[in-house]
Amino acid sequence: MNNKFISALAVILTAGAANAADVTGEIEIVTNDAGEVVNEITLDFTADGGIATAGIKMDETGITGYNLGTTVSGVTLSYGDQDDIMTSGGLRVVGGGTLADPTSADTSLIVGVDSAQILVGFSDGIADINNLQLGYTIGGLGATVDYNVDSTDITVVGSAGYEVAGIVGNALVSFDDSDNNVAYEVSAAVYGFTTYVNGDQDDLMQNIGAGWEDEIGDLTLFAEAEYNIDSGDVSPAVGISFAF
Q: How far apart are CA 118 and CA 46, in angstroms?
C-alpha cells in the first residue's frame, strides 16, 4: 500500500473517534485478472438521527467519489459524484459485461420516495443536465430507465428475483436504444456459491461465471472467475473486505 492509502486509513481512525456522526465503512483489497492489487475504502457518515448523511470513496489515487444528503419526511436527497441508480449485474468484480451501462454523469442529484428513485445527472457542475434516470421496485421486480438528454438515447434494465428451495435467483434484461441491443444475465446462488451466464441477441452464450463468498466475523472473503466462451479467456479475481 502506498502513502495515499495509508493516509486514508488514518482518516478512518480519526473519523471513528469523532462523536459528531456515526461512521460505518468498508476496506476492500482485490487482486484482479491483470495481477493488479486494488485497494478501496468506503466511508458513510450519519448524523442528527439519520437526517444528514455523507459518503466518500477512496483508493490509491485519491478520492474517487462522494455524496452529501438528507432525509426529510420520508424523502431522501443525495448529491455528489456518486453511483447511478441503474440496475447492474455481475458479482463483486466479474460479470455484468453484456448488460447495457449508460455513461454516468460527473455529478448527480438523486431523489428517493418509497420504492421510486429519480436521478438528474450533470456534466458541468449543475449548469448542464446530462441525463435523467428513473427506477422503481416492487417485490422482486424492478426497472430502471436512463434518458440521455444530448443523444436522446434510452436505456432500460429490468430485473426479477426469485427463491426456490433455498436457491436465490436473479434475471436481468437490458435494452439499449442507441444500437437496439437486447442483453441478459441470469444467476443462481446457494450456500455462498453463485453462478451466472450472460449474452445478447447476437451471441446468447457469451460468458459463464462463478463466485464464492463467505463471512468470518467482520471479514468477507471472496473468489470469482468468468470464462469467455468465444475467446477462451478466463478473468479471475480474489479479495478480502473488512466492514466496520
A: 22
Segment (H or E) for 187:
strand 181-190
Query: pTM score, two decimals?
Result: 0.86
- Each domain of the chain, given as residue ranges in start order, spans 1-81, 83-235
182-191, long-range: CB within 8 Å, 24+ apart, which pairs?
183/98, 183/99, 183/100, 184/98, 184/99, 185/89, 185/90, 185/95, 185/96, 185/98, 185/99, 187/89, 187/95, 190/166
Contact status, residue 197 vs residue 205, Cβ threshold 8 Å: yes
pLDDT of 49: 76
Q: How far apart are CA 113 and CA 189, in angstroms?
A: 30
* Of 162, 177, 160, 12, nearest in space to 87 by CA: 160
pLDDT of residue 1: 45
Q: How many CB atoms lie within 10 A of CB 10?
A: 9
Query: In whole angstroms, what separates CA 154 from the centre of its chain?
Result: 20
Q: Tell the burial category of 244 from Cβ atoms under 10 Å away from its Cβ (0-12, 13-18, 19+).
A: exposed
